[in-house]
Amino acid sequence: MAEEKLLTVNVVTPDGSVYDEKTPMAVFRTTVGELGILPEHIPLLASLEIDEVRVKVPNTEGKFDEIVVNGGFVEFSDNVATVVANSAERKEDIDLERAERARKRAQERLKKARQEKDTDKLRRAEVSLRRAVNRLNVSKH
User: Fold this and answer.
1) β-bridge mates for residue 50, sequence order
2) β pairing state of 7-13 and 80-84
3) Which residue in 28, 30, 62, 76 has the fewest CB atoms around it within 10 Å?
């Protein structure tokens, strides 16, 4: 039986490495849609949405590692996908209580920004809410 071809996925933030594993496939939500990368994919650079990176666990039937990313970009070349994000978190490291508190704070800021008709505060509150909801959604998979 032929050995499974693998690529490496690295997720890094200003605080350091969050994830570094080999995989037969990784899936990213970019600003233009979902992107699946297999070994030997052509080089690319893409902006990421606030979403999750899914990395297939080698030699399993459909099991994926999930990493929350808050935007950033993915660069792929030489069989290495490097994700650079301001913040990222592995699914198993998500603190549900903290994420729920962040969601509530963001909803309160959103409500206040709407009342004040402050578009700058509104945009920031919407991003904060998307980040908190993303963390909650991934933690519940």
Assistant:
1) 70
2) parallel
3) 62
